[in-house]
Amino acid sequence: MSDVPRVVFYGASGYSNSIVQAHGYSLPLCEPIAYIDDFRGSSGQSLNGIPIISFDEWKERLLDFACFVTIADPRSRRRLAEKIRLVGGTFARLHDRPEFSFPEVSIDAGTFVFPTTYVGPTTKLGKHVQVMTMCAIGHDVIIKDYVTICPSCTVSGYVVIEEEVFVGAGTTIVNGKAGKPLIVGAGTKISAGAVVTKSIPQNTSVAGNPARPLRELARDIRRAKNEV
After folding, report:
1. What is the torsional sign of CA 132, 118, 169, 203?
2. Cα-flanking dihedrals φ and ψ of residue 7, to 5°?
3. Which of 54, 79, 89, 132 has its CA 20 to 30 A from that of 154?
């Protein structure tokens, strides 16, 4: 495995393990050399035989190895990535090798796309984005930093997803238009199974079909019950 990048993972959960395993790729994605855990680190524990260490131990012994943050929550992922950056750490580029790349797609550092996901041409994925399995990302899509897209989501063409958006499992985001993309504002949380048919303002939580703010959805449900 000498040509496989050696990576330190921040997070020692089943999610970290699933990224390491990444079944569906023809070659090993990377070789984990340690897992950082702020609670269990340096207590002699391991994950699949790989040591679980503290942040300070990583900083002292393994700072030269690239890191990958395996936290699903976008804001928490940003916080840990910034913690690594401030002490001089770097981040793994897991999709730079040809066997893990997508044609005409730009994928930045710290980002991972699970196997069985399609990413269309002229699409850009920013830093520390996580796209889980069985998703379809259309053409001319921009997904900015620290976005999480859960399993079985569909993002159609001409969509912009701004920073720190969480897209729940099974969500559908319909297409925008060339020059007038559908925009999902920064910090938005989309509940599982939602169907997004129009742009969403920043820091909004939405659900339903069509997706609408949770307060508006609750009001409509109460109104429907009163009409019965």
Report:
1. positive
2. -130, 145
3. 79
CATH of the domain at 75: 3.40.50.20
Look up the pTM and report it: 0.91
For residue 228, with 0-12 CB atoms within 10 Å meaning exposed, 13-18 middle and 19 or more buried, which class applies? Answer: exposed
Q: Are 127 and 146 in contact (CB under 8 A)?
A: yes
Residue the block writes with tokens 């925008």? 176
**Does 107 fall in a domain?**
yes
Q: Domain range for residue 128?
A: 102-207
Burial grade of 139 (CB within 10 A; 0-12, 13-18, 19 or more): middle
Report the C-alpha gap between 6 and 193 in whole angstroms. 36
Structure tokens at 60: 């002292």
For 34-68, write each residue's pLDDT tens digit: 999 999 888 889 988 999 999 999 999 999 999 99
